Amino acid sequence: MHRISSQMNNNNTQSNLRLQESRLNRVNNQIGSQQKIQNLRDDPLAAGHLVRYQSYLGRVKTFEKNALTLSDEFSLREGYMQDSLDIMQRVRELAVQGANGIYNKDDLSNMATEVDELLKQLVQNANAVSADGNSIFAGTNTKATAFDVEMGNVDGSGIPLIQNVRYNGNIDVNSVEIDENKYLVNDNAGNKTFWAERQQIFGARDGSQWQSSSDNVIAIDGVEIKISQGDNLYSVINKINNSNAAVKASVDPIRKALNLETTDSRQLWVQDVQGNVLNELGIVKDSSQKPPYNLNDSVRVAGGSMFDTVIAFRNALLTGDQEAIGGRVLGALDEGIGSLVTRIAKSGAEYERAQLNVQRSSKLALDVTQMVAREGDLDFTQAVTDMKMLDYTNQATLSQAGKMYSSTLLNYMR
Q: Which of 1, 90, 101, 398 has a CA 20 to 30 Å removed from the CA of 22?
């Protein structure tokens, strides 16, 4: 029920004008921002969907960017690995020539000059850096030079030559998210890529009577293994073999010591994380020493890197040792080439997977963008029509109000 008074028409007219102006202003804001929802109360359900869709779209674009970055890294890394494979193939050709017995010592010495240059190029590839200045083959220690070179005097040469190449990176990996809770591992440790043989560690300390006095933690090839109080040598071996580490443990039948061997070509990485289990078993020095050069002085190590193999080949050429060239050197070169081919194949497979994720994320981003548009984008044609109708209604209201209140001050001056 409305109260009839002299102010009723004026109040109703003013209220309707303000309401029409509010609606017209809302439509103008929608057209200006191209967004259907200006406030959450406009459409709470659509606003909830829109927020989730926009959040998911941002994550999808991040996944696509991550996959693209990985693709670039894999492609760059594979290029250096392929060049290193060509070097190793050339070194093997020279090894076959040097082992056939038809060259004299001077000829072999001349061949050593080329092998030494190939070695320098191999080290250069291993120490390659990406466009942003990060070491490609240093694991996650990207700001360090992957391999340190030690120069020294070598029999048969009058100038210092490369005598040793030491890995200066780590074996940690980067897990990059390429989908919801799905990760692609970027493993670029140089002591795997440029390793020629399976590494073996032979302990020299009798561990048959050893027993852990407390709970400890050891790390084998980056995998942490818990050692419980009361565990003996055989328990430690069993835990190592049942872990995810690419290492096989055994007991030396003569010394009763702990032996370790990698299951593929890589440098073995052992460390006491908590306690002194490996130190007590004579495998590593005290826990203050960091891998990979923390092995006990009494430990015997077999299996070297590609650099060790090429250095041994060059030295054999300088001394004219054809027997060593045709035996151990040639066999190690074959193992190194086989390992590098495997690494290149793995890198290529990772590149293809990264590319597939780029394509999938790109398509998914388009689909989610359509969902965002459906919930939040403005129907421009409908909005313009609504604006014209509201403007027409507003003009009609103003016109009608003008007719209702046509009296002016002049009407009272007659």
A: 1
pLDDT in tens, 1-43: 555 555 666 677 666 667 666 666 666 666 665 666 666 565 6
pTM above 0.70, yes or no: yes
List 185's β-bridge partners, or say none: 175
What sign does the dihedral 108-111-117-121 (CA atoms) show?
A: negative
With beta carbons less than 8 A apart as the criterion, state whether 389 and 381 touch. no
Provide the CB-side half-sphere exposure for 326 (13 A, CA).
Answer: 10
Sign of the Cα pseudo-torsion (340, 335, 199, 242, in order): positive
Note the pLDDT tens digit of each residue in 114-163: 999 999 999 999 999 998 889 999 999 988 899 999 999 988 888 899 99
Minimal CA–CA distance to 277: which of 359, 219, 323?
A: 219
Rounded distance, CA 114 to CA 142, Å?
A: 31
Rounded to an integer, what distance in angstroms lies between the CA atom of residue 199 and that of residue 301? 7
Phi, psi of 113 (to 5 degrees): -65, -45
Position 16 scores a pLDDT of: 67
Beta carbons within 8 Å of 219's beta carbon, 6+ residues apart: 225, 269, 270, 271, 272, 273
Sheet holding 223-227, edge to edge: 223-227, 216-220, 270-274
Integer Cα distance of 363 and 369 in angstroms: 10
The residue behind tokens 């002016």 is 408
